[in-house]
Specification:
The protein is α+β, with helices and mostly antiparallel strands. It has five helices and five strands; from the N terminus they run E-E-H-H-E-H-E-E-H-H. The protein has a five-stranded antiparallel beta sheet with strand order 3-1-2-5-4. Strand 4 and strand 5 form a beta hairpin. Helix 1 runs antiparallel to helix 2. The longest helix has 18 residues. The chain is globular and about 55 Å long.
Length: about 130
């Protein structure tokens, strides 16, 4: 994350626009967000999609918090993001290329079979943690 934020210990964290989870990324990804917004608007125009709203999409893409983290990777999650991400007692971090998902394991477990790999990995980590705590 530090490398992706130009050597700064900054994590960008936001509510996902479609799933009940959070997404995290480094500051370098913000450079791509304007390009993504332009592509999505061009596609909506090409497809004559009246549901696309540039302002709504812009706030979804750019409505992230920039959070400092320490050398161990710890950060303080703002309460509103905890609520939006339905954060509970545990979190599961799932890499996704230039960003990662932050899931409440129970929310991830309710997703459809497209998420079966992440669900299996999460379940295995939970079982190992419970075994280690026993």
């Amino acid at each position: 994350m530090k490398d992706s934020s130009g050597g700064n210990r900054i994590l960008c964290l936001a509510a996902h626009d479609r799933f009940d989870c959070l997404i995290g990324f480094g500051q370098s990804r913000t450079e791509k967000l304007e390009q993504q917004l332009e592509r999505e608007e061009e596609r909506a125009i090409r497809l004559n999609d009246p549901t696309f709203d540039r302002d709504v999409r812009a706030q979804q893409l750019f409505g992230f918090e920039q959070l400092p983290f320490d050398d161990s990777g710890r950060f303080v999650m703002p309460e509103h993001l905890r609520d939006l991400g339905k954060v509970g007692d545990g979190l599961y971090f799932q890499g996704a290329g230039d960003f990662f998902f932050v899931w409440n394991p129970e929310e991830l477990g309710q997703m459809d079979t497209a998420w079966k790999g992440a669900q299996a990995a999460c379940a295995k980590l939970i079982a190992a943690a419970k075994k280690g705590a026993a």
